[in-house]
Specification:
Length: 1431
């Protein structure tokens, strides 16, 4: 492009902008291209030239006022004028109250043009044909008035506002004038008076109203039209009066005049006045005028009236309403003030730019868009209310097409009529007790109306959308028909593109119409076709209304349909719908809407009697007067039906019945996701009785048959039929004159995708009824055959119409729906204790899946865990042999390992002399703790004064304690007060805390071995505490010896090995200077020695002899004799059992008489069994009494025979003894007594009367007790090892068996006692592998305790097994077969019984093992005294 062209372009653009700036600075209207807002509109035409005003009147001379119009003019008196007047000036005009300024002549003009304000005082009036006021501000006082009523000048040229003729019609302007003339050839809408005009000026009206018609040719009675009022105020209008431009009344002989024009323009408006341009009353009322208000800021509450005048000749037809236009919101209001009318307010061409915002038709107003084609478009809403009517087109010409476009269409008690076709596009369409009536005529070109609401369509309170042609309702939101009377109906109806459709109870969707006229818009059914129309199986995707398709009602592209109302049509189709829910009050029906004739129509006799129509089944034979006639044939494809039901015969005959229609839900490509029915889905044939009800009585000689049932074709993914639901294609009943019953129709479920395998889920939940039976025939006529109920062929594993899983125990390996295809599974493939199970998706092949009858059994053979173990090793017998051999082998290995590990410690020690050997072999390995910790006590024995025993067995309920007051033997070496304080401190230390006893009580209930271990631990701690106190902490202040106090010597605390018997030894300090201390042995006689232990299994009676006692007794008896005596006595005491003390002590007494005393008598000593009991406790302690005898056999009496024995804690012996050594009964007749203690010697006579208490664990003493050694130590260890391994094996097998019963039984056996059944094994291993006999005996006793305690767990196992056997004895499965080693059978007790036997044998062997460990010299049990002493 050349540079010259560029330069020219720049110059043109510069000139354009300069012109714009010039106009912007000089013109009245600003134009800023950079700040342009709003809708584009073409430039307005230039304003008309200012009319030539007459010369202005003066304030004083012409108006008789005060002041000047260039400053302020005040009018205080009324004036009348006879011609147009002009009042102008640069000042203000104030008309005082009560002043009338009038020119009561038609068309007279009063113009007020002021630079400042204008004021019309209270009760003041301006009267003229035209009043125009220009001012900066204006004030209209209360009850002030500008009145141009009936003073109109000439109406605009080329208008027909004034009616012609003598019908007395009303004049027209904003609305048509009414006419009371009736014409039977025309509808009321086609008869009116004066016509409307000045439509294009409704935003700035300036036309006079028209005169009304007259009823007389001689005289004009018509009322005059209203005048014009114009207020053009730059600022504020304070409005309290009235602006009246009404038409004048015509009376009974003339029509009312039409209202005039009122135009108000201001910046702001306040007050509450009245603005009226109504039609005048008359024989026929005049039409309303036009009002336009253009006020930017309104704060008024004014009343605006544009209604028509009353019609005295026809009160129901008032004049049409005028128009009221609010320019700022661009809203048009048509309101007839609740005056009924059949006369229209014309709505002609709507503006394109800018669009109106809202249109309101209210209060019985009747608006009409009379053009052949028109677009009604607003930016906001079109609102019809209070019996308003809005019509499109002409009633006699239904070929018009209209467009309605708005944000909202709101209808309340109103009607919209469309003559032709309507294309509506709104966002929201709400109807309340309203109707939209579409008369499509017969022109197939324009027969379809489309209503589109993008957000919401709601019909409430009997609202109706009716079309006698095709109708499409589209939306992107929701369609809601709320309740009874809400109807959408058309000859062909399509609802599409909604998110959801909700039909309330009593609402209806219908297509085609009931009793609709038969014309080109009536749907044509495909009655003579046997093949399916392709659109039923493959419908188009666009969802448009298409007259060439077979649908009469289609719901397309809808997410959810919720039907509590009725959906009815001849061919009802649901396409691209996701879910459909039909409630109990809902119904989808095509009943009686099929073909009257059709492929399967029934044949008819000349008499009119016919057979029933056929479809899925043949129609029934008709029978009349001995003649029969065949019914219709069956036709169609039962596996994919899509046919209409046939009727009873020729549709030319009156009274013929129709078959059922067709209901199709979904398509081959797009099925419904889910269909839930709780109401009705029907396509029944029509019965003769139903036809009579609809059409009235027909010829009784005619007897047609019933119509055949139609088709219900469902392409669904899942189906739910509630209890109250019905799906039916029942044939209709024949007439009572002999008509045959109609054949049943067809119902087919075409499942879209049948899931199989793990993806399977039930396709249908059917609790309702599905009926395809034929209709009944009357008399001898036959009923119609039943129709068909089919489903899509099911894949493998599924059968039936609903493709259910084959019954349990069957399989299906071919496609099809017949139940016979589900074959029974071979019984040989089912294990015992198994049952067939339901498999998701059915069983498609053999073998059939199964499961064990209980969780206790395990797949695949339904064995228990124990059985699986047994069968893994070849069965019960082989398993038992393998287990026994394995136990023996492991027992040998364990025994060899034990001998190598502990064998060296069990070898007998080689000693140099016979004397030492005797002592070692004689000693029973029961030493006191003093011997272990303090091995050299020989020196102490020389200074020993007295041994004082603690009272109490050192238990939590009865701890050790010393009595107060020192015994006689130590009174000379102690201070009594200090001694009592020492006793208090010792007793305080010896007492146990409450929580220690609580722990013991809890453990005694839970597991006694743990309680015994806890007791021993507490006893050891208590002993250490006492010894530490006496050795280190106590200052020995109770002793008189200074040396003893200084060296912390003189008092020693010791205890027997069982930690039950404790004592305090008192020694001299060396500075007492007493010749009589320490006393010699014979001075101590009779001397009591208490047994340690309590006769229980863990603490047998023992006589503890430490070095002090041995040293003392050596003064009379050689140590070897004494040691042997102690060993033999302790060996016999081991056999004494608590609970069997009489028999045990009897043996002790006998042994003392046969073995001990004969040997001791040679040394002048005798020993007897005695009992001792403190007075403060009922517990009895046992021991022996040692005393001296003379060579001749008499009892030796010391010098102080009345002196009590060694301690106050011991029983005191009577100092007087029978001198006859053989008469010991005299001694026993008098037991020892003093103030603190009591006791006596036990012999064969008084032992029988002695009372012993038995404890709760007495029965266990038969299983665990101390016995004599049997030798064969290695063999016993080997057997125990085998039994120990057998025990743990049986325990594990028993637990495995219990786990197979239930987890509860398993936990109970482990918990009662806690883990008691598992503890014997580790305890036994510990005992077997303990070093040395002394260390092995203690763990062996613990092992025995755990072994016997575990019997409680075994007892729980017995109880659980018994309960389980009783519970399952009545629940045996048919496939159940007994098995020898099952807890479910009679042999459930085998393993627990074997375990009990194993534990009992273990208990006895453990006792022998303990005896072998503790008694190394079996000769201590010799019955021959000589053998005993020589060993």
């Amino acid at each position: 492009m050349s540079p010259i062209i560029h330069l020219i372009s720049i110059i043109i653009i510069t000139v354009f902008f300069l012109n714009v700036v010039a106009v912007n600075s000089n013109g009245d209207e600003s134009f800023d291209i950079l700040n342009f807002h709003g809708d584009y509109s073409p430039p307005s035409p230039p304003p008309p030239p200012t009319p030539p005003y007459p010369p202005t009147l003066s304030c004083v001379d012409d108006l008789q006022g005060i002041g000047s119009l260039n400053s302020t003019c005040e009018l205080t008196s009324s004036l009348n004028f006879s011609k147009d007047i002009y009042i102008g000036g640069n000042g203000s005009l104030r008309i005082h109250s009560g002043v009338v300024l009038g020119c009561p002549i038609s068309g007279c003009v009063i113009t007020i043009n002021l630079t400042d304000y204008f004021s019309l005082g209270e009760n003041s009036t301006i009267i003229a044909g035209t009043v125009m006021i220009n001012a900066t501000n204006a004030t209209f006082g209360d009850n002030s008035m500008v009145n141009v009523t009936g003073l109109a000048g000439e109406a605009p040229a080329q208008t027909s506002g004034r009616p012609s003729g003598v019908q007395g019609a009303g004049g027209g302007h904003g609305g048509r004038g009414a006419s009371c003339v009736t014409d039977n050839k025309e509808s009321p809408e086609d008869v009116w008076g004066g016509d409307a005009y000045s439509w294009l000026e409704l935003d700035r009206p300036w036309s006079y109203g028209s005169k009304g018609g007259t009823t007389s040719k001689e005289e004009d009675y018509g009322g005059e039209g209203g005048g014009r009022i114009g207020l053009f105020i730059d600022g504020l209008i304070e409005f309290g009066g009235s602006l009246l431009a009404n038409g004048a009344d015509g009376g009974i002989k003339g029509g009312g005049g039409s209202g005039g024009s009122i135009h108000i323009k201001a910046s702001r408006m306040t007050g509450s006045g009245k603005v009226s341009a109504t039609g005048g009353d008359g024989f026929a009322g005049g039409g309303g005028g036009r009002i336009s208000i253009n006020v930017f800021s309104r704060h008024d509450d004014s009343q605006f009236l544009v209604h028509g005048g009353k019609s005295l000749g026809c009160p129901e037809n008032a004049g049409a309403a005028g128009t009221y236009y609010d320019a700022v919101p661009r809203s048009l209001i048509i309101c007839n003030h609740n005056m009924s009318t059949s006369t229209d307010t014309l709505l002609l061409e709507f503006p394109k730019q800018p669009l109106w915002t809202n249109v309101y038709v209210q209060n019985h107003a009747k608006a009409s868009v009379p053009l052949f084609w028109s677009r009604v478009q607003v930016r906001g809403q079109i609102h019809l209310s209070c019996a308003a009517v809005l019509s499109f087109g002409l009633s006699h010409y239904s070929s018009s097409e209209f467009e309605l476009m708005a944000e909202e269409l709101l209808m309340s008690d109103s009607v919209i009529k469309i003559y032709g076709a309507l294309r509506m596009s709104v966002k929201m369409h709400l109807m309340w007790n309203s109707k939209m009536l579409i008369d499509g005529g017969t022109d197939v070109v324009v027969e379809t109306s489309l209503l589109e609401a993008s957000n919401l369509v709601v019909l409430r309170e009997s609202s109706v959308i009716h079309s006698n042609a095709n109708l499409g309702v589209h939306g992107q939101g929701y369609l809601n028909l709320s309740g009874p009377g809400d109807v959408i109906e058309a000859q062909r109806l399509v609802l599409s593109l909604f998110v959801g459709i909700n039909l309330g109870q009593g609402s209806i969707l219908r297509g085609p119409l009931v009793d609709g006229s038969d014309n080109d818009t009536t749907p044509r059914l495909y009655c003579d076709r046997q093949d399916c129309p392709v659109e039923l199986l493959h419908p188009p995707e666009d969802c448009n209304v298409n007259s060439s398709l077979s649908f009469t009602l289609q719901i397309c592209r809808v997410e959810d349909l919720n039907a509590e109302g009725i959906i009815t049509g001849s061919v009802v189709h649901f396409h691209l719908v996701r879910t459909v829910v039909v409630h109990s009050t809902g119904e989808i029906s095509a009943s009686g809407l099929g073909c009257v004739g059709g492929v399967g129509k029934g044949k008819v006799l000349d008499s009119g009697v016919g057979g029933g129509g056929g479809h899925g089944g043949k129609g029934g034979y008709g029978f009349y007067d001995g003649n029969s006639v065949e019914g219709g044939i069956a036709y169609g494809n039962p596996n994919l039906p899509c046919e209409l039901g046939s009727g009873s015969g020729d549709d030319s005959l009156a009274g013929s019945t129709a078959g059922g229609g067709i209901i199709v839900m979904g398509s081959l490509e797009h099925s419904l996701s889910s269909l839930s029915v709780h109401g009705l889905i029907r396509a029944d044939g029509e019965s003769f009785g139903d036809m009579k009800k609809q059409n009235g009585d027909t010829n009784s000689n005619i007897g047609p048959g019933g119509g055949a049932g139609g088709t219900i074709l469902l392409f669904v993914h899942s189906l739910t039929l509630g209890i109250s639901s019905t799906v039916s294609t029942v044939g209709g009943h024949g007439s009572s004159s002999g008509g045959g019953g109609g054949g049943g129709g067809r119902v087919h479920f075409h499942w879209s995708k049948i899931p199989t395998g793990d993806e399977y889920f039930p396709l249908a939940i059917v609790n309702g009824s599905i009926d395809t039976r034929g209709g009944f025939g009357s008399g001898q006529a036959h009923a119609g055959e039943n129709g068909t109920l089919t489903g899509r062929a099911c894949p493998k594993g599924l059968y039936g119409i609903y493709c259910e899983e084959c019954p349990v125990g069957t399989y299906k390996n071919v496609s099809g729906s017949d139940k016979a295809l589900c074959r029974i599974c071979p019984s040989t493939e089912l294990p015992h204790r198994a049952e067939y199970i339901t498999v998701r998706g059915g069983v498609a092949h053999s073998p059939c899946p199964y499961q064990c009858i209980s969780d206790r059994y395990h797949m695949p053979n339904c064995y228990t865990a124990f059985e699986e173990l047994v069968y893994t090793f070849g069965g019960p017998w082989l398993f038992g042999i393998i287990l026994l051999g394995l136990l023996i082998l492991l027992g040998l290995v364990l025994s060899v390992a034990r001998m190598k590990y502990v064998g060296g410690d069990e070898m007998p020690t080689v000693v140099p002399t016979r004397r030492g050997a005797r002592m070692e072999h004689s000693f029973p390995f029961l030493e006191s703790l003093n011997e272990v910790l303090e091995t050299n006590r020989n020196e102490e024995s020389q200074t020993h004064v007295h041994r004082m025993y603690f009272m109490g067995p050192n238990t939590f309920s009865e701890p050790w304690h010393l009595p107060h007051s020192p015994p006689e033997q130590v009174k000379e070496i102690v201070y009594e007060d200090a001694f009592n304080r020492f006793v208090d401190e010792i007793n305080g230390l010896a007492a146990y805390q409450w929580w220690e006893g609580s722990i013991y009580s809890i453990l005694a209930i839970i597991a006694y071995p743990l309680a015994w271990s806890w007791l021993q631990l507490c006893r050891k701690k208590k002993l250490q505490l006492l010894r530490e106190y006496v050795r280190s902490e106590y200052d020995h202040s109770c002793l008189r010896s200074c040396r003893s106090r200084a060296l912390y010597e003189g008092i020693k605390v010791a205890v027997t090995p069982d930690l039950m018997l404790a004592y305090v030894d008192f020694f001299l300090g060396g500075d007492e200077k007493r010749d009589d201390l320490p006393p010699r042995l014979h001075q101590r006689f009779p001397m009591s020695i208490l047994f340690g232990g309590d006769g229980s299994y863990t603490a047998p009676f023992t006589l503890h002899s430490d070095n002090i006692l041995t040293s003392l007794m050596s003064q009379a008896v050689p140590p070897t004799i004494w040691y042997r005596l102690i060993a033999g006595l302790n060996a016999q005491l081991r056999l004494v059992r608590r609970g069997h003390l009489k028999s045990g002590f009897g043996l002790i007494i006998n042994w003392l008489e046969t073995h001990a005393n004969p040997t001791l008598s040679s040394y002048g000593v005798r020993i007897d069994l005695a009992w001792f009991q403190p007075t403060t406790s009922s517990r009895c302690q046992f021991g022996v009494v040692v005393y001296a005898i003379e060579k001749d056999g008499l009892v030796s009496i010391n010098e102080d025979e009345d002196r009590p024995l060694e301690s106050e804690s011991q029983p005191c012996l009577n100092g007087v003894y029978n001198r006859n050594a053989m008469d010991y009964s005299r001694i026993n007749e008098h037991p020892w007594t003093n103030k603190r203690m009591c006791g006596g010697i036990l012999n064969a006579e008084n032992l029988q009367t002695f009372k012993f208490k038995r404890v709760i664990c007495y029965p266990f003493s038969f299983l665990v007790n101390n016995t004599k050694p049997i030798g064969h130590q290695d063999l016993v260890g080997l057997v125990i090892s085998v039994l120990l391994l057998g025990d743990v094996s049986l325990v594990l097998l028993t637990l495995l068996q219990l786990y197979s019963i239930s987890v509860v039984a398993f936990v109970l056996v482990l918990s009662i006692l806690p883990l008691g059944i598992l503890c014997p094994f580790p305890a036994g291993i510990t005992a077997l592998f303990s070093h040395g006999p002394r260390q092995a005996a203690g763990p062996a006793r613990v092992y025995a305790l755990w072994n016997i305690a575990s019997l409680i767990n075994v007892g729980v196992a017995f109880i659980c097994g018994y309960i389980n056997s009783k519970m399952h004895s009545t629940k045996k499965h048919p496939n159940f077969q007994s098995w020898n080693f099952s807890m479910d059978e009679s042999e459930w007790w085998v393993l627990p019984s074997a375990l009990v036997l194993c534990k009992v044998v273990q208990a006895r062997l453990i006792d022998y093992h303990v005896a072998n460990q503790e008694i190394q010299d079996p000769s201590v049990y010799s019955k021959d005294p000589d053998v005993f002493w020589q060993s």
